[in-house]
Amino acid sequence: MTRRNMLKATAAGLALPALGRSAFAADPVKIGFIYLGPPGDWGWTWAHDKGRKAMADALNGQVVANYVENVKEDASAIPILKDLAQQGNKLIFTTSYGYMDQTIEVAKQFPDVKFEHCTGYKHADNVGTYNSRFHQGRSVEGTIAGHMSKTGTIGYLGSYKVPEVVLGVNAFTLAAQAVNPKITTKLVMIDSWFDPAKEAAAVQTLANLGCDVVAQHTDSPAGLQVCEQRKVWCFGQGADMTRFAPKTQLTAIEDIWGPYYISRAKALLDGSWKPDDVWWGMKEGTVVISPYNKVMPADVAAAADKIIAGWKDGSYDVFTGPIADQSGAEKVAKGQRMEDKDLAVIDWYVKGVQS
Fold first, then answer.
1. What is the phi/psi pair of residue 211, to 5°?
2. Predicted confidence (pLDDT) per residue in 188-235, tens digit
3. What is the CATH number of the domain that holds 221?
4. 217/344 same-domain check
5. Cα(210)–Cα(15) distance, rounded to whole angstroms?
6. Claim: this prediction has a pTM higher than 0.70
7. N or C: which end of the chain has fewer CB within 10 A?
8. 98 lies in a domain?
9. Within a domain: residue 151?
10. 31: pLDDT strictly greater than 80
11. Which residue, 45, 46, 47, 65, is CA-closest to 55?
12. Following DSSP, what letter does each residue of 137-190 receive, concatenated?
């Protein structure tokens, strides 16, 4: 080989990495999550973690999905978010309402990192929000409760008085009252999203108050286990909890986050990500109703199916007036539908809710 040919070969070899860079896989992009509870709660956090795994599987080799569990909704979340950002996570999902201010604060310090906050309403250039129309599922549960209740007294186990929970209580009650106008809803709040002991005690209270159907907006199956013991009809939250109440769970609202997480990760990868305010529901597949318990009469299942179909095709909306608050004052006129901007900040209960 001549010196001239050796130089040509060397030059060609040096050029190959630059010319063939696209042929080599880039390092996976890191995406982080913070969870309120453990993935094993079989409810809210379990559903988010299922979505995280779906994203990682769908984009295998392109993303690495990290998470931190049991993150409190207080200032202690800030250093955890900072740590995720400093570790190189380019997109961070904060999966509970109480992380709203912490997300905004950390996002200011890391303008090159994208953040998405679940169920919140505050935005920034690098902070978007996402939510699911859980109240659509509550109206299905309420319809079933209206048919199944013998006492006319139904119960609701809630966490905090935030719009997400208030919407659920109201949707559950309004749908039940559409079947039986005399129905009332006993409401017990425990000021926690995940506290199995408190959840179980609260459901005992609801059963003692004569509630023969109970819905919940807390994260563990502890309340359903009490319903199974007390022979009270109930509904799973965030996931199908049949295993914990095989005889008394009538159905459950399943939170399906995978399609959303996949879409946002893809947007990050292709450079199209921008802060958004997303509120999906049954039509988009983020709210899904679990299979009905076989003990449910066919006419009740048909009534529930009609509500689901109505949400999907737009012919039904549980927040259609007339609607009055607890005092009896009209809040929504006959024939009018509440707008999203009002639903997103609702802080009042409908007539028939006893809190």
1. -70, 125
2. 999 999 999 999 999 999 999 999 999 999 999 999 999 999 999 999
3. 3.40.50.2300
4. yes
5. 79
6. yes
7. N
8. yes
9. yes
10. yes
11. 65
12. HHHHHHHHHHHH-SSSEEEEEES-SSHHHHHHHHHHHHHHHHH-TT-EEEEEE-
Q: Which two tokens stand for residue 124?
A: 């920034």
Could you read off the pLDDT of 227-268 as tens digits, one per residue?
A: 999 999 999 999 999 999 999 999 999 999 999 999 999 999
The Cα 53–Cα 41 span in angstroms is 16
> Are 233 and 334 contained in the same domain?
yes
Sequence-distant (≥ 6) Cβ neighbours of residue 193 within 8 angstroms: 36, 37, 44, 96, 159, 160, 218, 219
Q: What is the average pLDDT value for the chain, to the nearest integer?
A: 93
Whether the CB-CB separation of 13 and 46 falls below 8 Å is answered with no
Residue with tokens 């009905």: 292
Task: Kindly compute the dihedral angle of the four CA atoms of residues 329, 332, 333, 339, in this order, to the nearest 10 degrees.
Answer: 160
Determine the structural domain holding residue 306 and report its residue range: 137-247+290-354
Q: Is residue 19 part of a domain?
A: no
Asked whether residue 23 is assigned to any structural domain, the reply reads no
What is the number of structural domains in the chain? 2
CA distance 31 to 55: 10
